[in-house]
Each structure stands twice: as C-alpha cells, then as structure tokens.
C-alpha cells in the first residue's frame, strides 16, 4: 500500500483470509516472508496473519529520521486500509520493540492482545545470559559501532553472506546446523524452513543494509515510552526459552515485572529457535483465544 507521505508499506498475508487478524512483527533481520511458517497453522486455527516489512526492509520504503513511535502510525494506516476492526500483535526476537510500540500506541478499542515470543525488550534490561556475540552486538555494537557489528554478521553467519547465492547460503546454514543441540535438530534439519529463513533475510537486505541497521538502532536506544505505561486492560502474553542465549529470558522476566504482574509469562525449556517453532501452535492458540 501507499502511505499518505508517498512511502510504500509492504506486507503479506498468510493463513485464513477471513480469520482473526494478527499483525506480525518480524525479527532482526527479517521480513514479511518470515511469517510464511504460520500459513498452515493459520488456516487450521482460523487466523489471518498479516506480516509487515518495517521501513527499508523488503517492499517497504525507508523512513529516514523516523522514531520507534512512528511505526504504529504506519501499522494503523494498514489496518484502516484493510478494514480491520479488531486485531492482535505477534512479535518474535528483534521485533519486540516494534510490538511494544504498537501495544503503547495503537487504538485501545481495536488492539485486543499482544504476544512477545523470545522478543527483545527495552535496552536497559541488558543482555545477562546471552552469548558473547549478542552481549556485544546488542545494544552497543548495533548502536555505536554498526560497521563492526555488520562486518561480524556478514563474515560469520550464513544468512549474512549476501555475496553468496541463496542456495549457497542454504547449504552453509544446513552445515552450521549440524552443531545444533539435539532437541533442536528437527528445526535445523527442516530444509524448507531453513530455505524460508534464507529467503526472509534476502528480503531484509533487498534495499541494502541501511534500513536494517536503522531498525536496530531504534530498538537499541530508549523507546520514547515506558513498558509500565501500557494500558491496564491489554492482555500481554510472553513466551521465552530458558536456554535462549540470543534473547535471554531476563527480557521476559523484566517485561512482566514492569507490567506489575499483568502479563502472562511462559518460560519453557527451549532455545531461541525452539520456543518459536516447538510452541508455535500454543502461541497462536493463546493469541486467538484472547481476541
């Protein structure tokens, strides 16, 4: 769709076209393609999953000079464009800041629930429990040394090797996955899912690197609002993995604490990938039931 200022906002729809709408906030890096993993479950559960490219990702135009709180304005215009009267928000990983901004700013009469899955909270929570790469990369690397953070990403991770073809990156990703924990082998041995990961990240960088790093910077500095100020009647569902070393479970604990116990926190014996994939049916069912 075209926004009032002429920018394009890219989105894709999965699941049931007539189902309950879920506004999907992709990870970092990520794109609308990421939510394709929910297509079959969405049809089964009667959910319409609407995944939106953030500025500078996929089909969405860059939005230079924007802040985190500009994002819910774009999201609201999309909901009006689609004629949605009620909806929920689902975010994974690096989409946490965008989802919290939506929770804070979208119309209370229409936003029914928010679900955060291994999602990043405000940067002052810190990264205790994360591995060294994520402790250094977030928030300090992406905010203050994006060149070096990007260099590490491009050189060491399969999804960051944009100098390779998608098939070469897929092959590299499948080789990397051989070191995955036994409990997660079903995830990383799923060639179709890994191909989806590669395609989604190709779309994240379809317009270059600037949009992705700008997105990271917005999430790694003060949000412009406090989590505790989310409205009292909004259902917030939190799903975190005890073994997650990308987004440590501390983020779920702290978000719940800042909401004064109003959030429903689930802490499972899972990794970053495991909580997203092994629990996706339960996550979608809980969000559906809250609408």
UniProtKB/TrEMBL annotation:
Residues 20-272 form the AB hydrolase-1 domain. InterPro entries: AB_hydrolase_1 (IPR000073), AB_hydrolase_fold (IPR029058). It comes from the Eukaryota. This is AB hydrolase-1 domain-containing protein. It comes from Phaeosphaeria nodorum (strain SN15 / ATCC MYA-4574 / FGSC 10173) (Glume blotch fungus).
